[in-house]
Design a protein that fits this description.
Helix content is 21%, strand content 33%.
């Protein structure tokens, strides 16, 4: 038997204790009556009996009313102590509730509820089972963790935090939530050196880590649980039905930009074979539909072809109801055909100029070629401040300071944390990162490089091409921009000042392809007009082609928000939690558009996992039933009400 006092203040308990004393004192009150002479006492027997009652020893004899009233007060006191029994369970002294709020928790495989609502009910049962000695905190997580309530023993605050928790359309990253809990249960030391001054910054506070999720995340191995005792509560079933769109894009035909091709990948993330149709919509108009047959755990690709001249938004829909609606619809768009402006600073580089003048490059690029003397002029400084260039190419030269745009250095180093390794020498290429967009469809192993140098970039640099002496093509981020550096010259000058070739790359097919990739990736050119797609919740950074003071950004058929771009024309959109096509407008003119989609295989695989990997150990799903505390105070209140009814009945009968 356990007791949970409902009254916390001592003076309230003192006031309750005074109630039975007051009831007894009422029975000791003497009746004050005026003396009256009468000829006989025969008719006044009741009065004589009343006089006997006023005597000290007679007042409390056979007083059923007093007994009933004292019992009522005693039962009320017992009810305020909330007597009850808790079932056999582990100690709940200190708990961390981790609530998965990612997209897969919207699945409806549980009767009458989403997984998220079911998980909230489970946590609510645990909160109700807490005593005043227990404490808990609540953390929700999707691709980031959010502490909804820090450690507290106040069940009301925990319930309020649980009520405020909402499911999102984002992917899952449980590691951030584990780190938040780890910081409370596994305090660090003041030094990692192990010297005499190394002290523990706080006492270890073990806790039970209660994770409520469907297990839709990668195994977490590089994490030490320490004083956290994991407990996995699987939310959902293993037999599920879900057909998902995991990829959807559209591109204009290069030869005929009015013709559009759309491609999609449909995956069956469920456990049963599915046959249905998939419809392509432009606005509310049906463009085309195709039948698909997808076996369990398989996928298939489909394509559509149609005509569209202007910027267009599309919606692909699976014509079937399953257990996760979020991935049944996907969005794509065709941006207005956008050209970019490139400044080329070079003492003379005919292969580069020819690559920028090819038919494909000319459609998407306007190039201005200037000599290195332009770097010393006031016009260069004004041009860099105006932000009119999407890319600046420095061939065998460099400015005093990097411009506020992306750059490509050929045979020269940017100012800052870049450095050469060794002296110029012949270069043999040994490794190429073919997965990077800059090197797509680019074959470099047949190149001859007569003189080149390996280079080192700042922190965060990525090596794209490795030579026998080190990196020769490296890209590095810089305050929202990117700098690409090539460690050898394409053309050089001999001692007489004549232009000579330093490589045979200019004669290879891969040279114009590489320059075209540079225009697409670094300058942001998009000759095919396919709008980019981003994951839900991701901050989208855009650069507008024309300078405007303010634009409106919003999904189709919804109210748009007004945003002011930066002076250089960059725009950051952070409110991207809802899937859809987002339009960037200047009044009625569409400047740009992008799509937000889930496109996450892990989230679409909604079958709940029976066990998960946490901190080098496998954690099996625990029983989701909650050992509820059996409360007896309600019984005490019912008995108290019954005694009150008896007391009033007896009192009324006695008066009658």
């Amino acid at each position: 038997m356990t007791w949970i006092p409902a009254l916390q203040s001592p003076w309230l308990w003192g006031l309750l204790a005074a109630v039975p004393i007051g009831i007894v004192l009422l029975y000791f009150l003497k009746l004050r009556r005026e003396p009256v002479e009468v000829p006989s006492t025969y008719l006044w027997m009741r009065t004589i009996e009343d006089l006997h009652v006023n005597s000290l020893l007679q007042r409390l004899r056979r007083s059923l009313l007093l007994l009933a009233q004292l019992l009522v007060v005693a039962l009320a006191a017992i009810a305020l102590f909330r007597p009850g029994l808790r079932g056999q369970s582990e100690s709940l002294d200190r708990m961390v509730f981790l609530l998965d709020s990612s997209a897969s928790m919207q699945a409806t495989d549980l009767e009458g509820n989403t997984r998220f609502e079911a998980a909230k009910e489970m946590i609510g049962g645990q909160i109700d089972a807490m005593t005043d000695q227990d404490s808990a905190m609540l953390i929700t997580f999707d691709d980031r963790a959010k502490v909804m309530q820090s450690f507290t023993s106040d069940r009301r605050r925990l319930r309020d935090a649980l009520q405020r928790s909402e499911v999102s359309n984002r992917s899952t990253d449980v590691l951030s939530a584990l780190r938040a809990a780890d910081g409370l249960a596994n305090p660090r030391r003041s030094s990692e050196m192990g010297d005499v001054n190394d002290v523990q910054v706080a006492d270890a506070m073990p806790a039970t880590l209660k994770l409520y999720s469907d297990g839709g995340f990668s195994p977490v191995t590089e994490f030490d649980l320490g004083n956290l005792t994991p407990e996995y509560h699987a939310v959902g079933t293993g037999e599920v039905d879900n057909l998902a769109i995991i990829a959807f894009s559209a591109q204009r035909n290069v030869e005929d930009p009015t013709q559009v091709q759309a491609f999609a990948t449909i995956a069956n993330a469920g456990t049963v074979d599915v046959s249905t149709t998939v419809s392509l919509m432009i606005g509310d108009d049906l463009v085309d539909a195709q039948a698909v047959d997808v076996g369990a755990s398989e996928q298939t690709g489909i394509s559509f072809a149609f005509a569209a001249d202007e910027a267009t938004t599309m919606r692909l829909r699976i014509d079937r109801k399953d257990q996760l609606d979020l991935d049944n619809v996907a969005y794509a768009g065709l941006s207005p055909i956008r050209s970019v402006r490139v400044l080329v600073v070079t003492p003379g580089n005919e292969p580069l100029e020819l690559a920028l003048a090819t038919e494909k490059a000319a459609k998407i690029c306007t190039a201005d070629v200037v000599s290195p003397d332009f770097l010393e002029s006031e016009s260069f400084e004004k041009r860099m401040l105006s932000g009119v260039d999407d890319l600046v190419i420095f061939d065998r030269c460099r400015p005093d300071a990097l411009p506020a745009t992306n750059t490509f250095f050929i045979g020269a180093l940017p100012p800052g944390e870049w450095s050469w390794r060794g002296d110029p020498q012949p270069v043999v290429l040994v490794d190429v990162d073919r997965s990077h967009p800059l090197l797509r469809f680019v074959d470099l192993f047949s190149l001859l490089i007569f003189q080149g140098r390996s280079l080192d970039g700042p922190d965060g640099s990525a090596v794209l091409v490795e030579g026998d002496a080190g990196p020769v093509l490296t890209i590095a981020p810089r305050d929202g921009y990117q700098d690409l550096v090539l460690g050898f010259e394409v053309v050089s000058q001999d001692d007489d000042g004549a232009t000579v070739a330093n490589t045979n790359w200019y004669a290879e097919r891969s040279w114009p392809v590489f320059i075209l990739n540079v225009l697409r990736y670094l300058a942001g050119a998009a000759e095919a007009g396919g709008a980019p797609s981003h994951p839900t919740g991701q901050t989208v950074r855009l650069r507008l082609e024309s300078a405007v003071d303010e634009v409106t950004v919003g999904r189709e058929a919804e109210a748009a928000r007004t945003i002011q771009p930066s002076e250089t024309g960059f725009l950051e959109v952070v409110d991207t939690d809802q899937p859809g096509n987002y339009l960037v407008r200047d009044d009625d003119r569409v400047l740009s558009l992008f799509s937000i989609n889930l496109f996450d295989r892990t989230e679409s695989r909604i079958a709940a996992k029976p066990e998960i990997e946490l901190g080098y150990r496998s954690v099996e799903a625990a029983d989701n039933t909650v050992q509820q505390r059996q409360e007896y105070w309600r019984i005490a209140l019912l008995v108290m009400l019954g005694l009150l009814a008896v007391e009033w009945w007896y009192f009324g009968k006695r008066i009658a």
